[in-house]
């Protein structure tokens, strides 16, 4: 009998080596990466946990079997199934986009390796070892963020630095909790643990003042790899945070928990909203727009209620679409302009890169929570919830979202500006340098973005299933 958790770790890692060997054959490498991610995603959703499944050669796969690995346990809980499926399907979308956007970069093989590490972070117990796997994944991400035949990027090194700085706080927190179990009268240990845990996760999520790595990974790195870090990588961080809150319920029950999380989220929203429209580079705009989205997710968590947690899970489910589209737009526009993503050098480029421009536009609308986009699925409900309890926070979030839209709208005008040679003509010829295959892939993701905005019931049940796995919030 083969234990399912082992396969979830071994298969992506083995396929990473195979994809690396065939990387010169772009289509084959992409199909192997996409097929692996899709197959594992469907297996997580469809295979039962309580009974083995017969496969080829009389072998059996027990997906829900607990595995001991060097004295540590690998456990696939029912609540982890949706989370892991989200990781695999998101990776499949990003791999499909990379097929035409970044075909020969290290993103495909490294992305599969990251899937193995991040899956292990969800499966392994105790939780402290998940933090170790996240830091290892951050180190591996540096290679994915690095352009082909280029040096390690500033954004990648910053991300690794902040992830490494977060590790000691998590290790010490685990040790303090072990001491508290022996001396429950020493309540000072709880206060120290809360501070260390807050700083550590603030660094991993990019909360102010630890936010500088977020715009940096889009400024000089491979955009799709940056989208992977902010969706799959950060998704693992969010689930680790929720597992910590579930295990140490005293933290969410602390009187200052709500106000602290709300303050952190509001601060991030304000910083992102102020800086996003002022950016002169497309990559920086994408990063600060993502910061506003992260701040909104923190605000949802700060509600400390079932509604707030459901909205957070909705955000995690739909966020990959908007971030991926913005990354695709950034990548295409940067390639057209010789790796320069300054707005001043992109005047009129939108006529040559219509699909990249469309991706940037719809991705920005989704990240900002504009109606009829994937981001609107949860952002509107968050506004309605905040208006009655925290109207000031709702106003800040709304203004920050408008500021992100302003930055995207300004960029659209720059990209569609009439070239000097065409200013006296009534019609500008549409001469595109993008192929129909690339356009078709982008169009599919754009339709997914619009479809999720029009039919939120497609993802809402999955968010409810995830919420049912946690009980730490205030009823």
Summarize the structure in words.
By secondary structure, the chain is mainly α. The protein has a domain of 215 residues. A three-stranded mixed beta sheet has the order 1-3-2. Strand 2 and strand 3 form a beta hairpin. The protein is globular. The two termini are 42 Å apart.
Which structural class matches the secondary elements?
mainly alpha
Which percent range fits the helix content? over 70%
Radius of gyration: 22 Å
Largest sheet: 3 strands, mixed
Numbering strands along the chain, what is their spatial order in the largest sheet? 1-3-2
Number of strands: 6
Approximately how much beta-strand content do the residues carry? under 5%
The average pLDDT is: 86
Q: N-to-C terminal Cα separation, in Å?
A: 42 Å
Ranges where pLDDT stays below 50 over 5 or more residues in a row are 423-431
Order of helices and strands: EHHEEEEHHEHHHHHHHHHHHHHH
**Given the structure, what is the number of helices?**
18
Apparent shape: globular
Which key phrases capture this entry?
3-stranded mixed sheet, mainly alpha, 3-stranded antiparallel sheet, 475 residues
List the helices and strands and how they pair.
Elements: E1 2-3, H1 4-21, H2 26-46, E2 53-54, E3 60-62, E4 67-69, E5 72-74, H3 78-101, H4 107-123, E6 124-125, H5 128-145, H6 154-182, H7 188-205, H8 213-220, H9 223-247, H10 249-252, H11 257-275, H12 282-302, H13 306-336, H14 354-367, H15 376-389, H16 391-415, H17 436-454, H18 460-467
Parallel strand pairs: 1-3
Antiparallel strand pairs: 2-3, 4-5, 5-6
């Amino acid at each position: 009998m083969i234990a399912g958790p082992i396969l979830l770790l071994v298969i992506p890692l083995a396929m990473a080596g195979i994809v690396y060997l065939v990387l010169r054959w772009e289509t084959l490498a992409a199909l192997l990466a996409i097929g692996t991610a899709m197959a594992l995603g469907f297996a997580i959703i469809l295979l039962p946990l309580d009974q083995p499944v017969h496969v080829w050669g009389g072998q059996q796969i027990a997906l829900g079997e607990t595995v001991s690995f060097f004295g540590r346990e690998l456990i696939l809980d029912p609540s982890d199934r949706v989370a892991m499926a989200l990781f695999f399907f998101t990776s499949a979308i990003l791999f499909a986009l990379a097929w035409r956007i970044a075909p020969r970069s290290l993103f495909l093989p490294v992305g599969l390796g990251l899937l193995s590490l991040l899956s292990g972070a969800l499966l392994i117990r105790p939780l402290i070892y998940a933090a170790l796997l996240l830091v290892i994944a951050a180190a591996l991400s540096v290679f994915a963020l690095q352009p082909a035949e280029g040096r390690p990027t500033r954004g990648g090194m910053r991300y690794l630095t902040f992830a490494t700085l977060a590790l000691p706080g998590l290790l010490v927190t685990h040790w303090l909790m072990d001491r508290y179990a022996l001396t429950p009268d020493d309540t000072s240990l709880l206060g120290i643990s809360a501070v260390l845990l807050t700083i550590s996760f603030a660094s991993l999520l990019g909360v102010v003042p630890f936010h500088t790595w977020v715009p940096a990974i889009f400024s000089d790195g491979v955009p799709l790899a940056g989208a992977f870090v902010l969706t799959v990588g950060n998704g693992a961080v969010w689930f680790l945070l929720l597992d910590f809150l579930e295990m140490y319920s005293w933290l969410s029950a602390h009187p200052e928990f709500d106000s602290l999380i709300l303050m952190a989220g509001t601060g991030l929203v304000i910083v992102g909203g102020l800086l996003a429209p002022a950016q002169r580079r497309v990559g920086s705009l994408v990063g600060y727009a993502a910061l506003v989205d992260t701040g909104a997710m923190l605000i949802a968590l700060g509600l400390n209620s079932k509604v707030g947690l459901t909205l957070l899970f909705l955000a995690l489910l739909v966020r990959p679409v908007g971030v991926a589209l913005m990354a695709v737009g950034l990548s295409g526009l940067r390639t057209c302009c010789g790796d320069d993503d300054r707005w001043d050098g992109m005047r009129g480029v939108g006529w040559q890169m219509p699909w990249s421009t469309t991706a940037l536009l719809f991705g920005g609308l989704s990240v900002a929570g504009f109606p009829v986009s994937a981001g609107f699925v949860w952002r509107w409900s968050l506004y309605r919830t905040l208006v009655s309890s925290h109207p000031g926070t709702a106003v800040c979030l709304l203004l920050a979202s408008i500021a992100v839209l302003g930055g995207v709208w300004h960029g659209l005008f720059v990209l569609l500006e009439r070239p000097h040679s065409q200013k006296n003509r009534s019609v500008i010829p549409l001469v595109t340098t993008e192929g129909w295959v690339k356009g078709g892939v982008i169009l599919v993701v754009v339709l997914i973005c619009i479809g999720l905005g029009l039919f939120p019931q497609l993802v809402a049940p999955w968010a409810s299933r995830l919420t049912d796995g946690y009980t730490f919030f205030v009823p």
